[in-house]
Amino acid sequence: MSTNHMDRGAGSNHxxxxxxxxxxxxxxHTARQAEAVAEGVGxxxxxxxxLLPVDDPDDDLWALLQEADAIVFGSPTYMGSPSAVFKSxxxxxxxxxxxxxxxxxxxxxxxxxxxxxxxDKLNTLTDLAIFAAQHGMIWVGMAQPAGWNHxxxxxxxxxxxxxxxxxxxxxxxxQAPELVPPETDLRTARELGRRVATxxxxxxxxxxxxxxxxx
Length: 215
Hints:
Layout: E1 17-23, H1 29-42, E2 47-53, H2 59-67, E3 70-78, E4 81-82, H3 84-92, H4 94-98, E5 107-114, H5 121-134, E6 138-139, E7 167-170, H6 183-213
Parallel strand pairs: 1-2, 1-3, 3-5, 5-6, 5-7
Antiparallel strand pairs: 3-4
Helix pairs in contact: 1-6
């Protein structure tokens, strides 16, 4: 991996705020979730989004991730953890961590999809959060109450799967990504995208104000 063209730390404090959605999708279901996260990011004024599959990382991918103010990581949950493809990408970031924590102080968040209602998705989100922590990133979770947990609740409730560490989605294993995850899970993913964009914008304003006060 070539890294000598990258600056350390969060993205530039000039120009638009940038959020990268870095994800792997095995069958297209997690890609639908990634697209929904990106749509949510794009709803916040002044924030630009890059949708980045991590299947075959190249120098362009690494450069876009370095330029980002925030990175939202996404992976399907396979056998209770992130996919092997995502893990391979994560392991390749070791040189960035060891070279002065190049992603330090970027905002981070995560999402995952599995075939089962639970599917041990929390373990995948925990893996993603620890991965971000090892890079010195600042994790942002969901800020929505759990849905679908009362007798009068509905499957259409936002955050129906009750996740707070990140956005969860469920996709029936025998249905194509054009049909699942259901819209309720995609709305939850959009909400995560909006939250990340909003928090990142506020964080960047604070960094710029702090820099102005000390110059």
